[in-house]
Design goal:
The protein is built from 13 helices and 14 strands. The protein is an alpha/beta fold. It folds into 2 domains: about 5-225, P-loop containing nucleotide triphosphate hydrolases (Rossmann fold, 3-Layer(aba) Sandwich); about 230-260 and about 265-330, no CATH class. Helix 4 crosses helix 5, helix 4 (about 105-115) runs parallel beside helix 7 and helix 7 runs parallel beside helix 8. The longest helix is centred in the middle third of the chain and has 18 residues, at about 185-200.
């Protein structure tokens, strides 16, 4: 196993008190696998990535364990972390325009990771930078190496960000909404490129997105997050064919489908609750059309609802609707009880 995230919880200090941003998040990433993390804005997707990278404010409280190839990252000092970040784990941030330094050339910014983590000479670093620019599909690599971010288009800047992240051949690549600001054609090229790089380097990818089209295109497994918790997790194919949690179902219904005529797309009423006013029970209860009394008073635990498919929902704990019996490998119908 490449990455194991176990019971990860994050609290940030605001106005003198701590607010829980992530609550008991657990998942794994295997070598050569792409894991998608989906959910609306404010669900905790980016904070999960920043917690793995330990790019958090000084007063942040982080609980749980993050293991990269059996090495516990959460126990490392700042100096030890510097050797891992950009080397064994890399991250592509959301907006390449604000992530790149406008005062430094593209070549200098890609070369920085090589300077910190390798013993290459200046000439070897320059050669590696040009090679990386070619590898991410940029034309005129010999010229672009001396250019500045403002001279490049959005798609080119995103490729530069990928080149920076890939400079030291990381074991794990975290991509935070890597195609948000790009048009559809460039988006497809970037996703294709990342898939090729994953296969070439046998690395794991965490793809953070709210775009379910991107998930269907590149992800092997998916976790669905809502208000800082994982509400559903499964293989991408199974999750798309058979979503179980009412939140996942709502997300799926909001996507237009080819050949299907609808006057109106589905939508989920309301908004994600703020960490200040987190509900006592299921965090999705106030927006859920299947909510029961128990949903508002008590949090559901995570149960198996299919092969390698789990959901945290009282529908399956109480009703047993299509509940999956892992021991017998068949579906069972439990009786409903209050």
């Amino acid at each position: 196993m490449l990455l194991n995230v176990e019971n990860l919880s994050l609290s940030l200090k605001k106005d003198g008190s701590y607010l829980k941003i992530l609550d008991d998040v657990s998942f794994q990433v295997e070598k050569g696998e792409t894991l998608g993390i989906v959910g609306e804005s404010g669900c905790g997707k980016s904070m999960t990535a920043l917690s793995i990278m330990r790019l958090l404010p000084d007063k942040a409280k982080l609980e749980g364990k993050v293991n990269l190839e059996k090495k516990e990252i959460t126990a490392l000092s700042k100096k030890q972390l510097e050797k891992i970040r950009g080397n064994q784990i890399s991250m592509i941030f959301q907006d390449p325009l604000t992530s790149l330094n406008p005062l430094h050339s593209v070549g200098k910014q890609i070369g920085e990771a090589l300077y910190l983590h390798t013993e290459l000479s200046k000439i070897e670093r320059k050669q590696r930078v040009v090679h990386l620019l070619k590898e991410v599909g940029l034309p005129r690599a010999d010229e672009i190496v001396n250019e500045y971010p403002h001279q490049l288009s959005g798609g080119m800047r995103q490729r530069v960000m990928i080149a920076i992240a890939m400079a030291c051949n990381p074991r794990l690549l975290i991509c935070d909404e890597p195609t948000t600001a790009l048009d559809v054609t460039v988006q497809a090229q970037i996703l294709d490129l990342m898939n090729k790089l994953k296969q070439m380097n046998d690395m794991g990818i965490i793809m953070i997105t709210h775009d379910l089209g991107v998930v269907a295109e590149v992800c092997d497994r998916v976790i669905v997050m809502y208000a800082g918790k994982v509400v559903e997790q499964g293989m991408a194919e199974e999750l798309f064919a058979n979503p179980k949690h009412p939140y996942t179902i709502g997300l799926m219904q909001s996507i237009p489908k080819l050949g299907e005529r609808k006057n109106q797309l589905g939508s989920i009423p309301g908004t994600v609750p703020s960490p200040k006013n987190m509900p006592l029970g299921c965090r999705f209860a106030d927006r859920c059309n299947k909510a029961m009394d128990i949903c508002r008073g008590k949090q559901p635990s995570t149960v198996e609802v299919g092969p390698n498919h789990t959901a945290a929902c009282w529908l399956y704990e109480e009703k047993g609707v299509g509940r999956y019996d892992a021991s017998r490998g068949e579906r069972s119908e439990a009786t409903f009880h209050h």
